[in-house]
Write a structure and sequence with these properties.
alpha/beta; 17 helices
Length: about 525
Protein backbone atom coordinates (compact mmCIF):
# COMPACT_ATOMS: atom_id res chain seq x y z
CA UNK A 1 0.00 0.00 0.00
CA UNK A 2 1.31 3.42 -0.95
CA UNK A 3 2.37 5.82 1.81
CA UNK A 4 -0.01 8.50 0.47
CA UNK A 5 -2.89 6.02 0.66
CA UNK A 6 -1.99 5.25 4.27
CA UNK A 7 -2.12 8.96 5.12
CA UNK A 8 -5.54 9.20 3.42
CA UNK A 9 -6.83 6.33 5.55
CA UNK A 10 -5.35 7.94 8.69
CA UNK A 11 -7.17 11.17 7.85
CA UNK A 12 -10.54 9.45 7.90
CA UNK A 13 -9.52 7.35 10.90
CA UNK A 14 -8.93 10.59 12.83
CA UNK A 15 -12.44 11.81 11.99
CA UNK A 16 -13.89 8.48 13.13
CA UNK A 17 -11.92 8.61 16.40
CA UNK A 18 -13.24 12.16 16.92
CA UNK A 19 -16.76 10.85 16.25
CA UNK A 20 -16.33 7.98 18.70
CA UNK A 21 -14.94 10.29 21.40
CA UNK A 22 -17.92 12.64 20.94
CA UNK A 23 -20.26 9.64 21.20
CA UNK A 24 -18.58 8.61 24.49
CA UNK A 25 -19.20 12.13 25.83
CA UNK A 26 -22.89 12.37 24.87
CA UNK A 27 -23.51 8.62 25.40
CA UNK A 28 -26.15 8.43 22.65
CA UNK A 29 -25.53 5.77 20.01
CA UNK A 30 -27.53 7.63 17.34
CA UNK A 31 -24.75 10.23 17.13
CA UNK A 32 -22.23 7.48 16.45
CA UNK A 33 -24.35 5.63 13.87
CA UNK A 34 -25.51 8.67 11.88
CA UNK A 35 -22.15 10.41 12.22
CA UNK A 36 -20.28 7.36 10.93
CA UNK A 37 -22.64 7.02 7.97
CA UNK A 38 -22.18 10.68 7.05
CA UNK A 39 -18.40 10.31 7.37
CA UNK A 40 -18.62 7.36 5.00
CA UNK A 41 -20.63 9.49 2.56
CA UNK A 42 -17.91 12.17 2.67
CA UNK A 43 -15.31 9.50 1.99
CA UNK A 44 -17.20 8.16 -1.06
CA UNK A 45 -18.12 11.57 -2.48
CA UNK A 46 -14.52 12.77 -2.08
CA UNK A 47 -13.17 9.69 -3.82
CA UNK A 48 -15.62 10.09 -6.72
CA UNK A 49 -14.59 13.74 -7.08
CA UNK A 50 -10.92 12.72 -7.35
CA UNK A 51 -11.27 12.41 -11.14
CA UNK A 52 -9.59 15.80 -10.80
CA UNK A 53 -7.16 15.74 -7.91
CA UNK A 54 -7.39 19.43 -6.96
CA UNK A 55 -11.19 19.47 -7.17
CA UNK A 56 -11.46 16.29 -5.10
CA UNK A 57 -9.17 17.63 -2.40
CA UNK A 58 -11.11 20.90 -2.16
CA UNK A 59 -14.42 19.05 -1.86
CA UNK A 60 -12.95 16.74 0.77
CA UNK A 61 -11.46 19.56 2.85
CA UNK A 62 -14.71 21.56 2.86
CA UNK A 63 -16.88 18.58 3.78
CA UNK A 64 -14.50 17.34 6.49
CA UNK A 65 -14.12 20.85 7.93
CA UNK A 66 -17.89 21.04 8.35
CA UNK A 67 -18.03 17.52 9.77
CA UNK A 68 -15.03 17.72 12.11
CA UNK A 69 -16.13 21.11 13.46
CA UNK A 70 -19.46 19.64 14.56
CA UNK A 71 -17.83 16.61 16.15
CA UNK A 72 -15.25 18.73 17.97
CA UNK A 73 -18.02 20.91 19.45
CA UNK A 74 -20.07 17.81 20.32
CA UNK A 75 -17.05 16.33 22.10
CA UNK A 76 -16.51 19.31 24.40
CA UNK A 77 -19.91 21.04 24.36
CA UNK A 78 -22.31 18.07 24.29
CA UNK A 79 -24.25 19.47 21.33
CA UNK A 80 -23.70 20.54 17.75
CA UNK A 81 -23.03 24.20 16.91
CA UNK A 82 -25.92 26.46 17.95
CA UNK A 83 -26.87 30.09 17.46
CA UNK A 84 -26.26 30.58 21.18
CA UNK A 85 -22.65 29.46 20.81
CA UNK A 86 -22.03 31.76 17.87
CA UNK A 87 -23.67 34.76 19.51
CA UNK A 88 -21.47 34.25 22.60
CA UNK A 89 -18.15 34.23 20.76
CA UNK A 90 -17.43 37.58 22.40
CA UNK A 91 -17.11 35.66 25.70
CA UNK A 92 -14.44 33.19 24.55
CA UNK A 93 -12.05 34.47 27.21
CA UNK A 94 -14.39 33.04 29.84
CA UNK A 95 -13.40 29.56 28.62
CA UNK A 96 -9.74 30.19 29.36
CA UNK A 97 -9.62 27.31 31.83
CA UNK A 98 -9.45 24.89 28.89
CA UNK A 99 -8.06 27.27 26.29
CA UNK A 100 -4.85 25.28 25.80
CA UNK A 101 -6.83 22.09 25.20
CA UNK A 102 -9.17 23.87 22.80
CA UNK A 103 -6.39 25.57 20.83
CA UNK A 104 -4.31 22.40 20.52
CA UNK A 105 -7.45 20.46 19.56
CA UNK A 106 -8.39 22.97 16.87
CA UNK A 107 -4.87 22.88 15.41
CA UNK A 108 -4.88 19.07 15.26
CA UNK A 109 -8.36 19.06 13.69
CA UNK A 110 -7.27 21.57 11.05
CA UNK A 111 -4.13 19.58 10.20
CA UNK A 112 -6.10 16.40 9.60
CA UNK A 113 -8.92 18.27 7.87
CA UNK A 114 -6.70 19.89 5.24
CA UNK A 115 -4.27 17.01 4.82
CA UNK A 116 -4.38 16.21 1.06
CA UNK A 117 -6.03 12.91 0.13
CA UNK A 118 -5.21 10.46 -2.64
CA UNK A 119 -7.66 8.49 -4.74
CA UNK A 120 -8.26 4.94 -3.55
CA UNK A 121 -7.87 2.33 -6.30
CA UNK A 122 -11.10 0.31 -6.26
CA UNK A 123 -10.89 -1.25 -9.73
CA UNK A 124 -9.04 -4.32 -8.48
CA UNK A 125 -11.82 -4.88 -5.96
CA UNK A 126 -14.48 -4.24 -8.61
CA UNK A 127 -16.40 -1.83 -6.36
CA UNK A 128 -19.03 0.46 -7.91
CA UNK A 129 -18.72 3.61 -5.78
CA UNK A 130 -21.99 5.08 -7.07
CA UNK A 131 -23.87 1.96 -5.98
CA UNK A 132 -22.19 2.03 -2.57
CA UNK A 133 -23.03 5.74 -2.21
CA UNK A 134 -26.69 5.02 -2.99
CA UNK A 135 -26.86 2.32 -0.30
CA UNK A 136 -25.13 4.42 2.35
CA UNK A 137 -27.33 7.44 1.56
CA UNK A 138 -30.43 5.28 1.90
CA UNK A 139 -29.21 3.96 5.26
CA UNK A 140 -28.36 7.45 6.51
CA UNK A 141 -31.73 8.89 5.47
CA UNK A 142 -33.48 5.93 7.05
CA UNK A 143 -31.74 6.45 10.40
CA UNK A 144 -32.41 10.19 10.28
CA UNK A 145 -36.10 9.61 9.60
CA UNK A 146 -36.24 6.99 12.36
CA UNK A 147 -34.30 8.77 15.10
CA UNK A 148 -34.54 12.46 14.08
CA UNK A 149 -32.24 14.91 12.36
CA UNK A 150 -30.90 16.29 15.66
CA UNK A 151 -28.23 13.56 15.56
CA UNK A 152 -26.98 14.48 12.09
CA UNK A 153 -23.84 16.69 12.05
CA UNK A 154 -24.50 17.94 8.53
CA UNK A 155 -28.23 18.54 8.98
CA UNK A 156 -27.26 20.60 12.04
CA UNK A 157 -26.06 23.29 9.63
CA UNK A 158 -29.52 23.47 8.08
CA UNK A 159 -30.97 23.82 11.57
CA UNK A 160 -28.43 26.55 12.30
CA UNK A 161 -29.39 28.54 9.19
CA UNK A 162 -33.07 28.03 9.97
CA UNK A 163 -32.53 29.39 13.49
CA UNK A 164 -30.82 32.50 12.13
CA UNK A 165 -33.71 32.93 9.68
CA UNK A 166 -36.26 32.67 12.50
CA UNK A 167 -34.32 35.24 14.52
CA UNK A 168 -34.25 37.57 11.51
CA UNK A 169 -38.01 37.11 11.04
CA UNK A 170 -38.61 38.05 14.66
CA UNK A 171 -36.43 41.15 14.34
CA UNK A 172 -38.35 42.16 11.20
CA UNK A 173 -41.66 41.76 13.04
CA UNK A 174 -40.40 43.88 15.93
CA UNK A 175 -39.13 46.65 13.66
CA UNK A 176 -42.25 46.73 11.50
CA UNK A 177 -44.78 47.47 14.24
CA UNK A 178 -45.04 49.55 17.38
CA UNK A 179 -48.18 47.99 18.87
CA UNK A 180 -48.08 44.63 20.64
CA UNK A 181 -51.11 42.36 20.48
CA UNK A 182 -50.47 41.20 24.06
CA UNK A 183 -50.63 43.85 26.79
CA UNK A 184 -47.86 43.36 29.36
CA UNK A 185 -48.72 46.35 31.51
CA UNK A 186 -49.79 45.67 35.10
CA UNK A 187 -50.80 48.34 37.58
CA UNK A 188 -49.12 46.50 40.45
CA UNK A 189 -47.60 43.31 41.83
CA UNK A 190 -50.28 40.93 43.08
CA UNK A 191 -50.11 40.21 46.79
CA UNK A 192 -50.18 36.50 47.63
CA UNK A 193 -47.93 36.62 50.69
CA UNK A 194 -48.18 38.54 53.96
CA UNK A 195 -44.88 40.12 54.88
CA UNK A 196 -43.23 38.77 58.02
CA UNK A 197 -43.78 41.17 60.91
CA UNK A 198 -40.21 40.56 62.08
CA UNK A 199 -38.81 42.21 58.97
CA UNK A 200 -38.16 45.97 59.03
CA UNK A 201 -40.28 48.15 56.76
CA UNK A 202 -37.48 48.45 54.20
CA UNK A 203 -34.90 45.71 54.83
CA UNK A 204 -31.57 45.81 53.08
CA UNK A 205 -31.37 43.29 50.23
CA UNK A 206 -28.38 41.30 48.99
CA UNK A 207 -29.02 39.34 45.77
CA UNK A 208 -26.37 36.80 44.76
CA UNK A 209 -26.26 35.34 41.25
CA UNK A 210 -23.86 32.38 41.21
CA UNK A 211 -22.55 31.62 37.74
CA UNK A 212 -24.01 28.46 36.20
CA UNK A 213 -25.27 26.59 39.28
CA UNK A 214 -27.76 23.74 39.08
CA UNK A 215 -29.49 22.44 42.21
CA UNK A 216 -27.97 18.97 41.75
CA UNK A 217 -24.51 20.39 42.55
CA UNK A 218 -25.77 21.66 45.93
CA UNK A 219 -27.64 18.44 46.70
CA UNK A 220 -24.80 16.12 45.64
CA UNK A 221 -24.02 13.42 48.22
CA UNK A 222 -20.31 14.29 48.14
CA UNK A 223 -21.06 17.47 50.09
CA UNK A 224 -19.58 19.80 47.48
CA UNK A 225 -21.46 22.91 48.66
CA UNK A 226 -22.24 22.33 52.37
CA UNK A 227 -22.59 26.01 53.34
CA UNK A 228 -25.12 26.79 50.62
CA UNK A 229 -27.00 23.57 51.31
CA UNK A 230 -27.19 24.31 55.04
CA UNK A 231 -28.46 27.86 54.53
CA UNK A 232 -30.96 26.66 51.96
CA UNK A 233 -32.38 24.25 54.57
CA UNK A 234 -32.84 27.20 56.96
CA UNK A 235 -34.50 29.45 54.38
CA UNK A 236 -37.65 30.00 52.40
CA UNK A 237 -36.65 27.81 49.46
CA UNK A 238 -38.35 27.31 46.11
CA UNK A 239 -37.71 23.83 44.71
CA UNK A 240 -38.20 22.51 41.17
CA UNK A 241 -37.40 26.03 39.99
CA UNK A 242 -35.83 26.33 36.52
CA UNK A 243 -33.89 28.85 34.45
CA UNK A 244 -35.90 30.50 31.67
CA UNK A 245 -32.95 31.36 29.42
CA UNK A 246 -29.21 31.01 28.84
CA UNK A 247 -26.45 32.31 29.13
CA UNK A 248 -25.28 35.04 31.56
CA UNK A 249 -26.04 38.09 29.42
CA UNK A 250 -29.62 36.89 29.06
CA UNK A 251 -29.97 35.32 32.51
CA UNK A 252 -29.15 38.33 34.66
CA UNK A 253 -31.16 40.94 32.76
CA UNK A 254 -33.95 38.44 32.15
CA UNK A 255 -34.39 37.90 35.87
CA UNK A 256 -33.98 41.53 36.95
CA UNK A 257 -36.65 42.68 34.46
CA UNK A 258 -38.75 39.47 34.44
CA UNK A 259 -38.44 39.31 30.67
CA UNK A 260 -36.67 37.76 27.72
CA UNK A 261 -33.70 38.98 25.70
CA UNK A 262 -33.42 38.61 21.91
CA UNK A 263 -29.75 39.67 21.68
CA UNK A 264 -27.14 39.68 24.43
CA UNK A 265 -26.60 43.43 24.43
CA UNK A 266 -30.18 44.64 23.95
CA UNK A 267 -31.09 47.34 26.47
CA UNK A 268 -34.29 46.92 28.47
CA UNK A 269 -35.86 50.20 29.59
CA UNK A 270 -38.95 48.66 31.17
CA UNK A 271 -39.49 48.28 34.91
CA UNK A 272 -36.91 46.26 36.89
CA UNK A 273 -36.47 45.31 40.52
CA UNK A 274 -33.71 47.93 40.83
CA UNK A 275 -35.95 50.68 39.46
CA UNK A 276 -38.83 49.68 41.75
CA UNK A 277 -36.57 49.59 44.81
CA UNK A 278 -34.99 52.92 43.84
CA UNK A 279 -38.48 54.44 43.85
CA UNK A 280 -38.92 52.96 47.35
CA UNK A 281 -35.86 54.85 48.56
CA UNK A 282 -33.21 52.18 48.12
CA UNK A 283 -29.66 52.87 46.98
CA UNK A 284 -28.91 50.24 44.33
CA UNK A 285 -25.56 48.65 43.48
CA UNK A 286 -24.22 45.89 41.25
CA UNK A 287 -20.79 44.37 41.94
CA UNK A 288 -18.84 43.86 38.74
CA UNK A 289 -16.56 40.81 38.96
CA UNK A 290 -15.28 41.31 35.39
CA UNK A 291 -14.08 44.92 35.48
CA UNK A 292 -11.60 44.37 32.63
CA UNK A 293 -14.31 42.98 30.37
CA UNK A 294 -15.52 46.10 28.53
CA UNK A 295 -18.56 44.36 27.06
CA UNK A 296 -19.78 43.09 30.43
CA UNK A 297 -19.06 46.41 32.13
CA UNK A 298 -21.10 48.28 29.51
CA UNK A 299 -23.84 45.67 29.88
CA UNK A 300 -24.00 46.29 33.64
CA UNK A 301 -23.96 50.07 33.14
CA UNK A 302 -27.13 49.74 31.05
CA UNK A 303 -29.08 47.88 33.76
CA UNK A 304 -30.08 51.06 35.61
CA UNK A 305 -28.34 50.62 38.98
CA UNK A 306 -27.25 53.71 40.89
CA UNK A 307 -23.67 52.48 40.94
CA UNK A 308 -21.58 49.67 39.47
CA UNK A 309 -19.00 48.66 42.07
CA UNK A 310 -15.75 47.47 40.55
CA UNK A 311 -13.32 49.01 38.11
CA UNK A 312 -9.97 48.19 36.59
CA UNK A 313 -8.30 49.11 39.86
CA UNK A 314 -9.57 45.97 41.60
CA UNK A 315 -7.31 42.94 41.93
CA UNK A 316 -8.31 40.36 39.32
CA UNK A 317 -6.79 37.21 40.79
CA UNK A 318 -9.47 34.91 39.38
CA UNK A 319 -9.23 33.01 36.12
CA UNK A 320 -10.08 34.73 32.83
CA UNK A 321 -8.92 38.07 34.26
CA UNK A 322 -11.82 38.18 36.73
CA UNK A 323 -12.24 39.00 40.41
CA UNK A 324 -12.02 35.70 42.30
CA UNK A 325 -15.00 34.52 44.32
CA UNK A 326 -12.97 35.09 47.49
CA UNK A 327 -12.36 38.75 46.62
CA UNK A 328 -15.90 39.18 45.26
CA UNK A 329 -17.46 38.20 48.59
CA UNK A 330 -15.02 40.48 50.42
CA UNK A 331 -16.11 43.37 48.19
CA UNK A 332 -19.75 42.45 48.82
CA UNK A 333 -19.26 42.54 52.58
CA UNK A 334 -17.28 45.79 52.53
CA UNK A 335 -19.88 47.45 50.29
CA UNK A 336 -22.75 46.31 52.50
CA UNK A 337 -20.92 47.43 55.64
CA UNK A 338 -20.25 50.87 54.20
CA UNK A 339 -23.81 51.31 52.90
CA UNK A 340 -25.31 50.16 56.21
CA UNK A 341 -24.03 53.41 57.73
CA UNK A 342 -26.39 55.35 55.47
CA UNK A 343 -29.94 56.30 56.42
CA UNK A 344 -31.20 54.74 53.18
CA UNK A 345 -31.70 50.99 52.72
CA UNK A 346 -29.50 49.28 50.14
CA UNK A 347 -30.01 46.75 47.38
CA UNK A 348 -26.77 45.07 46.30
CA UNK A 349 -26.70 42.52 43.50
CA UNK A 350 -23.62 40.49 42.65
CA UNK A 351 -22.69 37.94 40.00
CA UNK A 352 -19.85 35.60 40.99
CA UNK A 353 -17.75 34.38 38.08
CA UNK A 354 -15.62 31.58 39.52
CA UNK A 355 -17.95 28.70 38.62
CA UNK A 356 -17.99 29.48 34.90
CA UNK A 357 -17.60 26.54 32.50
CA UNK A 358 -13.98 25.39 31.98
CA UNK A 359 -12.59 27.19 35.05
CA UNK A 360 -10.80 25.84 38.12
CA UNK A 361 -10.59 27.26 41.63
CA UNK A 362 -7.72 29.61 42.36
CA UNK A 363 -8.21 29.19 46.11
CA UNK A 364 -9.90 26.23 47.80
CA UNK A 365 -9.83 22.70 46.33
CA UNK A 366 -12.24 19.81 46.74
CA UNK A 367 -10.65 16.63 48.06
CA UNK A 368 -7.32 16.04 46.35
CA UNK A 369 -8.03 18.86 43.90
CA UNK A 370 -7.90 16.68 40.79
CA UNK A 371 -11.33 17.68 39.45
CA UNK A 372 -11.54 21.34 38.38
CA UNK A 373 -15.33 21.10 38.04
CA UNK A 374 -15.73 20.13 41.70
CA UNK A 375 -13.02 22.54 42.85
CA UNK A 376 -14.76 25.62 41.49
CA UNK A 377 -18.11 24.80 43.12
CA UNK A 378 -16.44 23.91 46.40
CA UNK A 379 -14.53 27.19 46.39
CA UNK A 380 -17.67 29.20 45.60
CA UNK A 381 -19.34 27.54 48.58
CA UNK A 382 -16.36 28.08 50.87
CA UNK A 383 -16.21 31.80 50.05
CA UNK A 384 -19.98 32.10 50.52
CA UNK A 385 -19.62 30.44 53.93
CA UNK A 386 -16.85 32.87 54.90
CA UNK A 387 -19.08 35.78 53.87
CA UNK A 388 -22.02 34.42 55.88
CA UNK A 389 -19.83 34.07 58.99
CA UNK A 390 -18.95 37.76 58.78
CA UNK A 391 -22.49 38.74 57.79
CA UNK A 392 -24.08 36.98 60.78
CA UNK A 393 -21.76 38.90 63.12
CA UNK A 394 -22.26 42.25 61.40
CA UNK A 395 -24.17 45.32 62.51
CA UNK A 396 -26.57 45.00 59.54
CA UNK A 397 -27.42 41.30 59.98
CA UNK A 398 -30.83 41.88 61.58
CA UNK A 399 -31.88 44.37 58.88
CA UNK A 400 -30.82 42.47 55.76
CA UNK A 401 -32.20 39.62 53.68
CA UNK A 402 -30.08 37.34 51.50
CA UNK A 403 -31.46 36.13 48.18
CA UNK A 404 -29.40 33.33 46.65
CA UNK A 405 -29.86 32.05 43.12
CA UNK A 406 -27.98 31.52 39.82
CA UNK A 407 -27.84 33.34 36.52
CA UNK A 408 -28.71 30.04 34.82
CA UNK A 409 -28.21 26.28 35.13
CA UNK A 410 -24.80 24.61 34.92
CA UNK A 411 -23.82 23.98 31.32
CA UNK A 412 -23.43 20.30 30.47
CA UNK A 413 -20.00 20.02 28.89
CA UNK A 414 -17.54 17.15 29.06
CA UNK A 415 -16.26 18.29 32.48
CA UNK A 416 -19.76 18.31 33.98
CA UNK A 417 -20.46 14.82 32.65
CA UNK A 418 -17.22 13.53 34.14
CA UNK A 419 -17.83 15.18 37.52
CA UNK A 420 -21.51 14.13 37.75
CA UNK A 421 -21.71 10.85 35.79
CA UNK A 422 -24.87 9.64 37.53
CA UNK A 423 -26.88 12.84 37.02
CA UNK A 424 -29.01 12.70 33.90
CA UNK A 425 -29.98 15.84 31.99
CA UNK A 426 -32.17 15.99 28.90
CA UNK A 427 -30.65 19.27 27.75
CA UNK A 428 -27.34 21.07 28.04
CA UNK A 429 -28.75 24.42 29.22
CA UNK A 430 -31.99 23.87 31.21
CA UNK A 431 -32.19 22.52 34.75
CA UNK A 432 -33.47 23.16 38.26
CA UNK A 433 -31.50 25.91 40.02
CA UNK A 434 -31.49 27.27 43.60
CA UNK A 435 -33.64 30.17 44.73
CA UNK A 436 -34.00 30.87 48.43
CA UNK A 437 -34.55 33.81 50.77
CA UNK A 438 -32.90 34.04 54.18
CA UNK A 439 -32.90 36.49 57.08
CA UNK A 440 -32.37 36.33 60.82
CA UNK A 441 -35.20 34.41 62.48
CA UNK A 442 -36.87 33.12 59.32
CA UNK A 443 -38.86 29.92 59.63
CA UNK A 444 -37.61 27.38 57.05
CA UNK A 445 -40.20 26.58 54.39
CA UNK A 446 -39.91 24.62 51.15
CA UNK A 447 -42.27 25.50 48.31
CA UNK A 448 -42.56 23.23 45.26
CA UNK A 449 -43.13 25.50 42.25
CA UNK A 450 -43.46 22.55 39.83
CA UNK A 451 -41.30 23.76 37.00
CA UNK A 452 -41.94 27.50 37.10
CA UNK A 453 -38.91 29.56 36.24
CA UNK A 454 -36.67 32.56 36.79
CA UNK A 455 -39.13 34.97 35.16
CA UNK A 456 -40.87 34.80 38.55
CA UNK A 457 -37.95 35.84 40.74
CA UNK A 458 -38.62 39.60 40.85
CA UNK A 459 -42.43 39.41 41.30
CA UNK A 460 -41.83 36.87 44.09
CA UNK A 461 -39.34 39.06 45.95
CA UNK A 462 -41.54 42.14 45.65
CA UNK A 463 -44.57 40.15 46.82
CA UNK A 464 -42.51 38.86 49.75
CA UNK A 465 -41.63 42.44 50.73
CA UNK A 466 -45.17 43.76 50.14
CA UNK A 467 -43.86 46.18 47.51
CA UNK A 468 -46.06 46.93 44.55
CA UNK A 469 -45.48 49.05 41.46
CA UNK A 470 -46.59 49.44 37.88
CA UNK A 471 -44.65 46.96 35.77
CA UNK A 472 -44.32 44.91 32.59
CA UNK A 473 -43.19 41.68 34.25
CA UNK A 474 -43.94 38.50 32.31
CA UNK A 475 -43.69 36.39 35.44
CA UNK A 476 -45.79 36.40 38.59
CA UNK A 477 -45.27 35.60 42.26
CA UNK A 478 -44.33 32.02 43.10
CA UNK A 479 -46.56 32.37 46.15
CA UNK A 480 -49.52 32.09 43.79
CA UNK A 481 -50.86 28.56 43.34
CA UNK A 482 -50.41 28.40 39.56
CA UNK A 483 -48.52 30.00 36.68
CA UNK A 484 -49.99 33.14 35.15
CA UNK A 485 -49.04 32.22 31.56
CA UNK A 486 -47.11 29.68 29.50
CA UNK A 487 -43.87 31.69 29.70
CA UNK A 488 -43.50 30.85 33.39
CA UNK A 489 -42.69 27.27 32.43
CA UNK A 490 -41.02 28.03 29.08
CA UNK A 491 -37.33 28.22 28.25
CA UNK A 492 -35.95 30.23 25.34
CA UNK A 493 -32.46 31.28 24.32
CA UNK A 494 -31.45 32.41 20.85
CA UNK A 495 -32.65 29.21 19.21
CA UNK A 496 -33.99 26.61 21.65
CA UNK A 497 -37.47 26.15 23.05
CA UNK A 498 -38.23 23.91 26.04
CA UNK A 499 -40.94 23.43 28.62
CA UNK A 500 -40.24 22.76 32.32
CA UNK A 501 -43.91 22.29 33.20
CA UNK A 502 -44.48 19.90 36.10
CA UNK A 503 -40.70 19.82 36.64
CA UNK A 504 -40.06 17.81 33.47
CA UNK A 505 -37.85 19.36 30.79
CA UNK A 506 -39.18 18.49 27.36
CA UNK A 507 -39.31 19.85 23.85
CA UNK A 508 -42.25 21.98 22.74
CA UNK A 509 -44.75 21.06 20.08
CA UNK A 510 -44.90 23.22 16.94
CA UNK A 511 -48.06 24.85 18.29
CA UNK A 512 -46.45 25.63 21.65
CA UNK A 513 -43.40 27.09 19.93
CA UNK A 514 -45.62 29.30 17.78
CA UNK A 515 -47.46 30.54 20.89
CA UNK A 516 -44.21 31.29 22.71
CA UNK A 517 -42.79 33.09 19.65
CA UNK A 518 -45.87 35.30 19.68
CA UNK A 519 -45.31 36.11 23.36
CA UNK A 520 -41.65 36.86 22.69
CA UNK A 521 -42.31 39.08 19.68
CA UNK A 522 -44.92 41.08 21.56
CA UNK A 523 -42.66 41.49 24.57
CA UNK A 524 -39.81 42.77 22.40
CA UNK A 525 -42.20 45.20 20.68
CA UNK A 526 -43.33 46.45 24.09
CA UNK A 527 -39.75 46.75 25.30
CA UNK A 528 -38.67 48.75 22.24
CA UNK A 529 -41.65 51.10 22.10
CA UNK A 530 -42.92 51.58 25.65
Amino acid sequence: MKLKTIFTILKYAFSFILTFAAFINVDTKHYLVIGTLELLIIFIVSDICMFKKVFGRIVNSILLLLYNAQMFILLFGSSYITVLMLTNLHSLEALSGKMVIYVVGVIVVLIFTFWPIEKIEWKKLKVNMYAVLSVVLALELGFVMLFGNIHSPMFAYYNLLHQFYEKHEMEEAINSTSVATIDFYKDGVENFYKKDDRLPKTPNIILIFTEGLSQNVISDERNIMPNVEELQSKSLSFINYYNHTFATYRGIIGQLFSGYQLNDFDVNKLVSIQSVLADEGYDTFFINTEPNNKDFTEYLNNLGFDEIVGDTGYECSGMADSISDKNAYEILYDTALEESKSDEPFFIAMYTFGTHASLDSVDQKFGNGDDAELNKFYDADYQFGAFMDKFENSSFYEDTIIIYTADHATYVDDSFKKAFPDYERNTTTVDAIPFFIYYSGIAPVEIDVKGRNTLNMVPTVLDYLDISAENYFIGSSLFSSSAGNMCETSYFDSNLYYSSKYSVVSGMSAEEQADLKQWLTNYYITRENQ
